[in-house]
Amino acid sequence: MIRFSPRIIAILVATTGLSAFSLTAQAEDRAPFVNEAPPAAAPAVAAIAPADLAGVLNYCIETNLVTHGNGDAVQTALNAKTHAVPPDQHGNVDYATGTTGQFIVGNALSTITKLSAPDQGKICSLVVARAQSLI
């Protein structure tokens, strides 16, 4: 027969409850990563890495900021050239970042999701033009 001391059980319950409470409090103190990114500026589009650009183009197409007719062929060609979506299904972090409407330029994260729809459309037009120049 195994005996447990009521004091040991009380201490375990108290410490487990306190640690869970403090972890929850710390997690709530930190804002989500996407909210930290400043809005994108048009000149930054020229410096987006090609795989990230392919991801941003995907974001623009999926959010209907670029039509499938104008974007699908460009995206397919850019994905093939940059290997942004490799056939082995391992994925590409830059592409994944881009598909969320975010991109990294000079070690700084930017996002187009904080812009108004017309401004997002302008950035997406620049993304399509840059993508066309890369293929």
TrEMBL record:
Keywords: Signal. Residues 1-27 form the signal peptide. This is Alcohol dehydrogenase. The lineage of its organism: Bacteria, Pseudomonadati, Pseudomonadota, Alphaproteobacteria, Acetobacterales.
